[in-house]
């Protein structure tokens, strides 16, 4: 249990303001990207006295960061210190454009390890646990900080790198791992493989920390994972450019607490950029308070969230996002007058235990957009499954989708972020 977790709101605000002041003192004028942002807004460092002044600053978008790195290759102008001070490089996946390269000094890296210490405290992970990291350890930030933080905590850390699913299962069983870290998609795939090999009953996994996709807070997906592993799922959210941001608490599943000792969180209307009230849907905007070497001020994450207006039964004052990450601002699709996000489709499809995997094509090239869904069943013999899923989509999401079955083993499996949605324009 960490002191910052249970600060009273007034104390937490005071801590944030001290950290914001230190961030701006370090950043200006040394960090050229942010210095230019201040200048363009007609502001000086002395104009920002506390959290209430943050909204005087313009927001920052991922597009700006990509353009800055193109103009100042290869790392951009958003570095606070000389290049020789930096020891870590990670980059985004680049699934929707050019990847962002992000550098860290030992100080900023340790700040992110401290965030993961908080995350492990939320999930009640102790030095007695054995953690298996089922991801490839590529250039994206992924679970790198989680691995190093767990090692610092004293846990036995099992890196599975480029191993096959079968080899990862054997490592999980042989070493009696108790905590699994992966994407929600891979947690389901690993469980299916374990079931096929009659290994699931030998598992010691009691907790699963998932990230990279919204599935951890989607009730149907979460339930599938927990039932398969007979373990508790903890949802987590983070991004390469901001670090580890949020985690679910033990007492109130289905939501994410922002680690507000290290981040200032705002929720704004995406169009007007004005704040929305708690309980209303809006875009999450973050200011990184502890990553001084490569900071972001008022960064538009693109994540759609809803702040829970009720106090959390866990007793923490950290803001809680009800339902976790609800969608992405650039993922909304209008189908015949109905707006929906891909996570809503997943929420319907994952309720059907017969579904092993699925893929969606959204065709907006015609006058009326169409949705086509491919369903891969766990095994042959589910002839009416497509009709049942099509009816559920129609009844709950209020549009008709073309749903068809494909043979078991047909659709791709994903270790990191699943690419199930294809858009045809």
Identify the notable features of this structure and list them briefly.
Rossmann fold; 8-stranded mixed beta sheet; 10 helices
Short overview:
It contains ten helices and 20 strands. It is an alpha/beta fold. The protein is globular, with a radius of gyration of 22 Å.
Word description of this protein:
The protein has 425 residues and is an alpha/beta fold. It has two domains: 1-328, ANL, N-terminal domain (Rossmann fold); 333-424, GMP Synthetase, Chain A, domain 3 (2-Layer Sandwich). Helices cover 28% and strands 23% of the residues. The protein has ten helices and 20 strands. It has helices at residues 9-27, 32-40, 62-71, 106-122, 144-153, 165-174, 184-196, 219-229, 342-349, 385-397, and strands spanning 88-91, 101-104, 130-133, 156-159, 179-182, 207-210, 232-239, 243-247, 255-258, 263-268, 281-288, 299-306, 320-322, 327-328, 333-335, 338-340, 355-363, 370-377, 402-405, 421-424. An eight-stranded mixed β-sheet has the order 4-3-5-6-7-8-9-13. It has a four-stranded antiparallel β-sheet with strand order 10-11-12-14, with no helix packed on it. α7 runs parallel beside α8 (219-229). The longest helix is centred in the N-terminal third of the chain and has 19 residues, at 9-27.
């Amino acid at each position: 249990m960490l002191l910052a977790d249970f600060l009273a709101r007034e104390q937490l605000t005071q801590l944030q303001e001290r950290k914001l002041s230190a961030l701006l003192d370090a950043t200006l004028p040394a960090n050229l990207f942010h210095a230019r942002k201040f200048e363009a807004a007609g502001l000086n460092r002395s104009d920002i006295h506390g959290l209430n002044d943050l909204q005087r600053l313009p927001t920052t978008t991922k597009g700006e960061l990509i353009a800055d790195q193109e103009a100042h290759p290869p790392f951009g102008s958003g570095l606070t210190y000389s290049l020789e001070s930096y020891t870590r490089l990670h980059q985004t996946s680049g699934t929707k454009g050019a990847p962002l390269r992000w550098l860290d000094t030992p100080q900023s890296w340790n700040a992110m390890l401290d965030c993961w210490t908080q995350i492990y405290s939320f999930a009640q992970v102790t030095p007695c646990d054995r953690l298996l990291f089922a991801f490839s350890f590529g250039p994206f930030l992924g679970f790198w900080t989680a691995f190093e933080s767990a090692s610092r905590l004293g846990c036995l850390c099992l890196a599975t790198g480029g191993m096959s699913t079968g080899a990862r299962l054997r490592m999980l069983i042989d070493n009696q791992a108790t905590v699994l870290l992966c994407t929600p998609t891979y947690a389901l795939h690993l469980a299916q493989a374990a079931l096929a090999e009659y290994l699931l009953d030998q598992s010691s996994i009691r907790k699963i920390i998932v990230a990279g996709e919204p599935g951890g807070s989607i009730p149907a997906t979460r339930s599938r994972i927990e039932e398969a592993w007979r373990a508790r799922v903890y949802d987590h959210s983070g991004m390469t450019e901001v670090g580890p941001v949020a985690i679910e608490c033990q007492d109130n599943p289905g939501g994410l607490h922002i680690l507000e000792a290290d981040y200032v969180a705002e929720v704004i209307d995406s169009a007007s950029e004005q704040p929305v009230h708690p309980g209303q849907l809006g875009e999450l905007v973050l200011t990184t308070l502890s990553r001084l070497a490569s900071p972001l001020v008022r960064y538009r994450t693109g994540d759609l969230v809803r702040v829970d207006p009720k106090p959390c039964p866990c007793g923490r004052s950290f803001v809680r996002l009800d339902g976790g990450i609800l969608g992405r601002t650039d993922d909304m699709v209008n189908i015949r007058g109905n707006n929906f996000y891909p996570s809503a489709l997943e929420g319907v499809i994952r309720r059907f235990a017969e579904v092993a995997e699925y893929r969606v094509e959204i065709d907006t090239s015609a006058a009326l957009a169409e949705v086509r869904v491919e369903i891969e069943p766990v095994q042959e013999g589910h002839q009416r499954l497509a009709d049942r899923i099509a009816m559920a989509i129609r009844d709950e999401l209020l549009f008709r989708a073309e749903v068809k079955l494909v043979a078991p083993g047909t659709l791709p499996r994903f270790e990191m972020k699943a690419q199930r949605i294809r858009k045809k324009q």
